[in-house]
Input
Amino acid sequence: MRAAHGKIQPQLTPLTPVAVRPLSDLVTDQIVDAIALRHLLPGERLVETDLSTLLGVSRAPVREALRTLQGQGVVVAAPRRGLVVGPFDAAWATQLRLARLSLERQAAVLACERLRADSARMDLIDTAIDDLDRARGDWLAVNKADIAFHAAIFEIAASPLLLALWRAIARHVLILFGHEVVDNPEFEPVLAEHHHYRDLLAQNRTDELAHEIAHHVAGHPTRSRPYPITTDQGE
Output
């Protein structure tokens, strides 16, 4: 670009919009993180005013976050107590694993088909694995990268129904991961398992994938501990 007197002006790079998440979404994630880290226990009351003070926000985004989490079954209404953290017990863990198993097997088959047509989409999974590796030492970050790995498979599968169903349970899965983590778990076997999962997808080995997914959803023995893990926080 030239100015009127012939001087060359610097070419400006067009600015792109900055993605800003609604405050209520950030509050929702904070509450889920606290549940996953067991700072909020199953059955514990969730008082709107207390949460707004702890998080340094007004009550409106807290109220919206709790409404979202109630719709997803992460928090539930209890008689005479208001909203409480959901009953994340052995029955819940079993039901969640069965739901994951069915959804992920279907998504994996579709993802293999898509990857045969467009192998470049494997970049989504590779990025998630890189994030998983970088997160070592921080198990909440590891678990979130793990969620992103599975979300990438559903994105590649390109089934609106399966993706919607995955999103409906994704926060439950993060909580399950957090509740399963043992003291001083081994990270390398978890990373290796995800690399193996990735390779089976890339090589379209659907029969082996079905077995791998069952093993994967069951939880890695170096990371997992059995239920029950907490007790109800009655008042």
Observations:
- Residues 1-10, 226-235 have pLDDT under 50 and may be disordered.
